[in-house]
Design a protein that fits this description.
- Keywords: ATP-binding, DNA-binding, Nucleotide-binding, Phosphoprotein, Transcription, Transcription regulation, Two-component regulatory system.
- One of its GO terms (molecular function) is sequence-specific DNA binding.
- It holds the Pfam family AAA_lid_14.
- One of its GO terms (biological process) is regulation of DNA-templated transcription.
- It is a single chain.
- By secondary structure, this protein is α/β, with parallel strands linked by helices.
- It has 4 domains: 141 residues, Response regulator (Rossmann fold); 164 residues, 3-Layer(aba) Sandwich (Rossmann fold), CATH 3.40.50.300; 80 residues, Helicase, Ruva Protein, domain 3 (Orthogonal Bundle); 49 residues, Arc Repressor Mutant, subunit A.
- The chain contains 20 helices and 18 strands.
- The chain has a 5-stranded parallel beta sheet, with helices on both faces.
- Helix 4 links the parallel strand 3 and strand 4.
- Helix 5 crosses helix 20, helix 11 packs across helix 13 and helix 14 packs across helix 16.
- The chain is elongated, with a radius of gyration of 33 Å.
- The two termini are 47 Å apart.
Length: 493
């Protein structure tokens, strides 16, 4: 599909030319129509907006100096309304600041007047090619990237790899060994393997090896006959028998007693077993999936887990990534959990503040998804409102993320103010002499770094809108772009 899409590159395009000079518009139109493009012309900003509302073009050639409004206002309209068309700026008054602002708003290229037919058509061809390739890539992502897979939620590369392993391993009878920290979704993974397999119509029997006493584990797996031991008042089917025709999931398998490990090894090799107290062999047609939150090789080295059993189980290893390594999956999962909890608790929360989202992303989540669920439940139950904010976070999480959880961080770090009166001669007074050992001055940091924090925070609060942030800071947008370039140079030094 992608190969075919790459070959189907558009040779003709619908182009909206926004140019206030009728003579120049006619010249540019002739250049473009010579390449078989369909061209509409707008001589004013209002006419351009009307054309955009009537029919969306593939490409907009936009002059920045229009009689009724700046061309940047047209570009801002396209950006704000997420109109899916490419934009090339054409102007005789170009500058680095204008180009930077135009690119930030989504312009694909920038052409300075005057230009000839070859220059214009080459720019148009390159822009259309870039737009086409972008659409192919987005189509590929929509096809092969999933936010949900059975009970899993996540679009990170780490989880996409997990999904592919599950799909590849599920049709097989091979044993899968799932490893991962507590709360990463090992049982969910076992369920996904079962549902993707040909055994999906059979039973999925889960057994937690850490929750069952060692002297009862054999009976839980293989079953027992009446009178096999004290308390065995009737015959009981074990997990192996109940899972016949389906999948047996052994969770926390590294917790299993060494004596039972040898019996499990024989069962895995032959799929034959004997119930406790019985002398008749049984056979089961099952697929075995195991899981542990420990390092199985370390357990083997420590003598707590049989090496031969490890290699028998570890046919298809499937490591689950911890939540801290899954990036924005944290917010995807949090939003899903919040939606469920709001309905259950009859609350009105509809999302997270920007500061709270940053706090969730900045925390390590040692308890993974299970801890995230507990934190959100705590916030929803104990608070009211429409947005979950940082003051609602549990104390341990606020302590862990430190200053990043402050809803409104101070613009400048708190530091003692040293009052002074300027000397008439212009020489700094002695009171301003700072001794390196003076602890009161330890909080002072470089001015450019504090300025950077103020500007970047303002941009975040304006949802990335630099002109709006600049207006609130009472500076020019071009000043922000220049300062950003300067910060990058400072950090490289």
């Amino acid at each position: 599909m992608t190969q075919r899409a790459l070959k189907e590159r558009p040779r003709q395009a619908r182009i909206l030319l926004v140019e206030d000079s009728p003579a120049m518009a006619a010249v540019y139109q002739s250049y473009l129509e010579a390449e078989q493009h369909s061209v509409r012309v707008a001589g004013t900003g209002a006419a351009a907006l009307s054309e955009l509302n009537e029919a969306l073009p593939d490409l907009v050639l936009l002059d920045l100096h229009l009689p009724d409004m700046p061309g940047m206002a047209i570009l801002q309209h396209i950006h704000d309304h997420a109109l899916h068309c490419a934009v090339v700026i054409i102007t005789a008054h170009g500058s680095l600041d204008i180009a930077s602002e135009a690119m930030r708003l989504g312009a694909s290229d920038f052409v300075s007047k005057p230009f000839d037919a070859a220059r214009l058509n080459l720019t148009v061809a390159n822009t259309l090619e870039k737009r086409h390739l972008s659409r192919v890539v987005n189509q590929y992502r929509r096809t092969f990237t999933r936010n949900r897979f059975h009970g899993f939620i996540g679009s990170s590369l780490a989880m996409q790899a997990v999904f592919r392993i599950i799909e590849s391993a599920a049709p097989s009878k091979a044993t899968v060994f799932i490893t991962g920290e507590s709360g990463t979704g090992k049982e969910l993974c076992a369920e996904a393997i079962h549902q993707e397999s040909p055994r999906r119509k059979g039973p999925l029997v889960a057994l937690n090896c850490a929750a069952i006493p060692a002297d009862l584990m054999e009976s839980e797996i293989f079953g027992h006959v009446k009178g096999a031991f004290t308390g065995a008042v009737s015959q009981r089917e074990g997990a192996a028998s109940r899972a016949d025709g389906g999948t047996l999931f052994l969770d926390e398998v590294c917790e299993m007693d060494l004596d039972l490990q040898s019996k499990l090894l024989r069962f895995i090799q032959s799929r034959r077993y004997t119930r406790v107290g019985d002398n008749k062999e049984q056979q089961a047609d099952i697929r075995i999936v195991c899981a542990t939150n420990r390092d199985p090789l370390e357990e083997v080295r420590a003598g707590r887990f049989r090496e031969d059993l490890y290699y028998r189980l570890n046919v298809i290893p499937l490591p689950l990534p911890p939540l801290r390594e899954r990036g924005d999956d944290i917010l995807l999962i949090a939003e899903h959990l919040l939606e469920t909890m709001v309905e259950e608790e009859q609350k009105s929360f509809r999302g997270f503040s920007e500061a709270a989202a940053d706090a969730l992303l900045g925390y390590d989540w040692p308890g993974n998804v299970r801890e995230l669920e507990n934190v959100l439940r705590n916030m929803v139950v104990l608070n009211e409102g429409t947005l979950l904010d940082t003051p609602m976070l549990p104390a341990h999480l606020q302590t862990s993320v430190g200053a990043t959880v402050s809803a409104v961080p101070p613009a400048l770090p708190a530091a003692p103010v040293v009052p002074y009166a300027p000397a008439v001669t212009g020489e700094p007074p002695a009171a301003l002499t700072i001794q390196p050992e003076d602890q009161a001055m330890a909080g002072i940091r470089p001015l450019w770094l504090q300025e950077k924090e103020i500007i970047e925070r303002s941009i975040r609060l304006c949802d990335g809108n630099i002109p709006r942030a600049a207006a609130l800071l009472e500076i020019s947008p071009s000043t922000i772009y220049r300062k950003r370039m300067g910060w990058e140079k400072m950090q490289e030094q």
